[in-house]
Specification:
This protein has 7 helices and 5 strands, in the order E-E-H-E-H-H-E-E-H-H-H-H. By secondary structure, the protein is an alpha/beta fold. It has a domain of about 140 residues: 2-Layer Sandwich (Nucleotidyltransferase, domain 5), CATH 3.30.420.10. Strand 1 and strand 2 form a beta hairpin. The mean pLDDT is about 95.
C-alpha cells in the first residue's frame, strides 16, 4: 500500500501558514502553538503529524523545518492563563500569537482542527486532522510539540516527582498518583480534572 503524500498547500499562489498546537490535553504546563510558512515546493518523506513520529524523528526534523521554512514562530500560553480563559481559547490565543510573530505576513492560514477564533484579518481554513494532510501544519505540529517537550523537561528538574520528563504533563496514571501524593504545583492547570474517580475513592 502506497503511503498517502502530504500536500504542499491548500490555496495555490498564496503565502500560506500552517498552524498547530501541542499540550491541550495535559494536566500541567503551558499550551504551545507554532505557525510555519514553507516554500510551495517543500517536500519531506518523514514529516507527518507529530503524534505519528518518534521523538528522535521530531527532533531530527525541527532544525530542518527551521532552516527550510520561509518563516516560523512558536508561542505559548501559561497554565494560569489557561485556567482564566479555558484551554480552547488559550489554544486559539497561542496560535494567534505565533502568527503575529511571523517575520512574513501570510495571506492565508491553515488551522489544524475544526474551530478557530482569529485576532487578525487573515483568512483561514480549518482542517480536521490537517497535521496528517499538509506539510505546513505537520511542520507546525513538530515545532509546537518539541518546544513544549523542552519546556516540560526543563521544569521536571524542579519537580521530579511528577515524571514530566516522560509524561510531559499528560494524565498518566503515575502523574495522577503523584498529584494525589504530593499535591499540585504552580504549573498544574487547576481548571482541569487532576484526579480521576478511582484515585479519589481509594483514600
Amino acid at each position: 500500500m502506497v503511503k498517502s503524500k502530504l500536500l504542499s498547500y491548500f490555496k495555490k499562489n498564496l503565502i500560506e501558514a500552517g498552524c498547530d498546537e501541542a499540550g491541550r490535553g495535559c494536566l500541567a504546563g503551558p499550551v504551545f502553538a507554532a505557525a510555519v510558512i514553507l516554500p510551495p515546493d517543500f517536500e519531506n518523506e518523514i514529516l507527518n503529524d507529530s503524534k505519528k513520529l518518534t521523538e528522535k524523528q521530531r527532533y531530527k526534523l525541527r532544525p530542518l523545518i527551521e532552516k527550510e521554512a520561509l518563516a516560523w514562530a512558536v508561542e505559548s500560553v501559561s497554565n494560569e492563563k489557561i485556567d482564566e480563559v479555558n484551554i480552547l481559547n488559550a489554544s486559539f490565543l497561542a496560535m494567534n500569537m505565533a502568527v503575529e510573530k511571523l517575520k512574513i505576513q501570510p495571506r492565508h492560514l491553515l488551522i489544524d482542527g475544526n474551530r478557530f477564533r482569529t485576532q487578525s484579518k487573515i483568512p483561514f481554513t480549518c482542517m480536521i486532522k490537517g497535521d496528517g494532510r499538509f506539510f505546513s501544519i505537520a511542520a507546525a505540529s513538530v515545532l509546537a510539540k518539541t518546544y513544549r517537550d523542552d519546556f516540560m523537561e526543563k521544569i521536571h528538574a524542579d519537580f521530579p516527582d511528577f515524571n514530566w520528563n516522560n509524561n510531559k504533563g499528560y494524565p498518566t496514571k503515575k502523574h495522577r498518583e503523584a498529584i494525589k501524593k504530593f499535591g499540585v504545583t504552580k504549573y498544574h492547570r487547576m481548571s482541569f480534572r487532576l484526579l480521576n474517580e478511582q484515585l479519589e475513592l481509594d483514600l
